[in-house]
Amino acid sequence: MEVSTLTAILDTTLAVVFTWVAYKTGQLIWKYTPYSYPNARIRAMEARLLTDQRLSELSESGTLQNFVVNLEDTDYGERLSSLSSYNLEEVERALELSLSDLLELMVKIMPKRIRGLFEIMLEEWDVRNIINVVKAKFSNLPPQDFIIPTGKLLPKVRAMAESKAMEEMLVILEGTEYEEPLRKLLLREIDLQAFEVELYKIYYSRLLKYVKSRKGEERIISQEFVNMLIDYKNINVILRAKLSSLSPEEIRNLIIPGGSLSRSTIEAMINSEDVMMALGELEGSRYGEVLKDVREAIEEGKIEKVEEALKKYMIKRMKELSQFYPLSVAVALAYLLEREEEVRKLKAIAKLIEDKVKPEKIKEIVGEMA
User: Fold this and answer.
1) Which of 27, 66, 299, 310 is the most interior residue, by most CB within 10 Å?
2) Mean pLDDT score of the chain, rounded to an integer?
3) pTM for the predicted model, two decimal places
4) Euclidean distance between CA atoms 234 and 258, whole angstroms
5) CATH of segment(s) 112-213
């Protein structure tokens, strides 16, 4: 074989190799680089999460005003500094709005290919607001008092609150996914509870549809996250329904489609005789071990302990995924869950301060929530 022929073959081989390397490098850059900035920013925010020592100090605030002042240097400071008065309702609302602010930040900084997840999660505030206004209207209460000032549909929600007739609310929601459930409610085809469930079914179906449209790691992580959210809601609904002695058919109507629990497990829980037997049906699932330590609390009717255990597990699982996929959406989702738990504890401290509970007791209660 001539030297020129060998040279040509070698040149072609090198060109193929370099092309393949360039392609793979481009893939890696496309896959991971967009997460470098948002994850660095989230890691910095993680470092500002309140320690147990800080929560203990907040428990000694004595008054809601001191409680707010003691949070001025935290990520809640901006919202709390705008309070018009130091009452529990306003403090709790400011803390909740900080979570809305966090989701809006995620929408701005996360890669475009996963940004939609956080945009849809923001829509839960629309669901909550619509439910609150409709319930207030049916109860002849001032609906403006129940609006959380955030969400894409906030102008529509405020218009609903100011409407004079129920039918006006239907016109305001025309063209949205929430129009049909409201129509059914006004025609008395469903009750208020079913209306609320219908809205949440719409919300979670949108989340599921979105995460299933993702690819690779983003689909793996975001789909597991949404499945856990649905499992969390369904498990709590079933256990609370069992405590209230609802019939299997009534419970079945409250279930959100989706999640990682099999249909047979959900059905077994629904058809179980009591709350403890319903809990027993989870023993073979991913949540069996998680809930083993709260059986005694459930026997006493403390379903909030189930909620705490499940949220703790969700945080742990997202943190595991963030370690396995360090440059991924798992970092943001883990932090979001941590902040939700932090807000839950802060709201508990504020409520206990308002109720004049002694600092030592507040510390004890909040410590049990960890």
Assistant:
1) 310
2) 91
3) 0.88
4) 10
5) 1.20.1690.10
Fold of 219-328: V-type ATP synthase subunit C fold (1.20.1690)
The torsion angles phi and psi of 150, rounded to 5 degrees, stand at: -160, 170
HSE, side-chain direction, 13 A CA sphere, residue 103 = 19
Residue 46 has which token pair? 């993680």
Q: How far apart are the first and last CA of the chain?
A: 75
Whether 315 contacts 341, CB under 8 Å: yes
Give the angle 338-219-29 at the CA atoms, nearest 5°: 95
Phi/psi at 138 (5° precision): -70, -25
How many other CB atoms are found less than 10 A from the CB of residue 116?
18
Among 155, 156, 157, 151, CA closest to 119? 151
Residue 318, CA distances (Å) to 103, 228, 284, 325, 330 in order: 17, 10, 21, 10, 6
Interval 37-53: pLDDT, tens = 999 999 999 999 999 99
Place of tokens 């030297």: 3
369 and 344 Cβ atoms separated by less than 8 Å: yes
Is the per-residue pLDDT at 73 higher than 90? yes
Whole-angstrom distance, CA of residue 271 vs CA of residue 288: 18
pLDDT digits (tens, 9 = 90+) for 345-356: 999 999 999 999
Q: Determine what percent of the chain falls in helix, strand and coil, rounding each to the nearest 5.
A: 75, 0, 25
Which is the CATH superfamily of the domain at 48-110+329-370?
Answer: ATP synthase (C/AC39) subunit, domain 3 (1.10.132.50)
Two structure tokens written together for 242: 């069992």
Question: How many whole angstroms separate alpha carbon 179 and alpha carbon 193?
Answer: 16
Tokens 């940004």 correspond to 115
Copy the structure tokens of residue 342. Answer: 């932090």
Distance CA 294, CA 205 (A): 30
Q: Check: CB of residue 68 under 8 Å from CB of residue 91.
A: yes
In angstroms, the CA 317 to CA 211 distance is 17
Query: Token match 């299997």: residue?
Result: 248
Domain with CATH 1.20.1690.10 in the chain: 112-213
Amino acid of residue 274 = D
